[in-house]
Amino acid sequence: MEANIISPNDAGLVLHRFVTERIPVLARFVSADGSLRSEISEFVTSFTRDIGMVISSEHPFLKPDTTLPATMLFAYDAVIESAFRYSDDAEIPEESSLGSGLFISFRNDNTLVIAEIRPRK
Q: What's the CA gap between 70 and 118, in Å, rounded?
């Protein structure tokens, strides 16, 4: 999968699209030393200066037989000071359940990949 380096402004536009269009995503975080790993699939629910970037399964309230909400929160400054790469949907094999993706390399060498989940055919 090829990934193109993009500016923080362009990455912000991608994140804005994820939030406003409520695009289902798979988010995978890995710490620099590999000791921490986290993966959730749902939505980027916020990307603002005040709140930061929030990726969440977004359950407004719990009902019987539902799973607990999962959330990843990243400080706004940590995100905008990162390096970004973007992989276009056309670069992903059609048989993959994932589409285009945003790769975020934080200054402390932690990484986060946010990939669109393709609708099932």
A: 21
What is the mean pLDDT of each successive set of 10 residues along the chain, which is 121 residues long? 81 95 94 95 93 83 66 95 89 78 96 90 63
Give the Cα separation of 7 and 84 in Å (integer). Answer: 7
The parent domain of residue 28 ranges over: 4-58+68-117
Task: Specify the pLDDT at position 110.
Answer: 98
Count of CB atoms situated within 10 Å of the CB of 11:
22
- Domain contains 18: yes
Residue 63 covered by a domain? no
| Total residue count of the chain as it appears in this document | 121
Distances (CA, A) of 46 to 16, 21, 53, 57: 8, 12, 5, 12
CATH code (residue 32): 3.40.1570.10
Positive or negative CA dihedral for 18, 19, 21, 27? Answer: positive
Q: Is residue 84 part of a domain?
A: yes
- pTM assigned to the model: 0.85
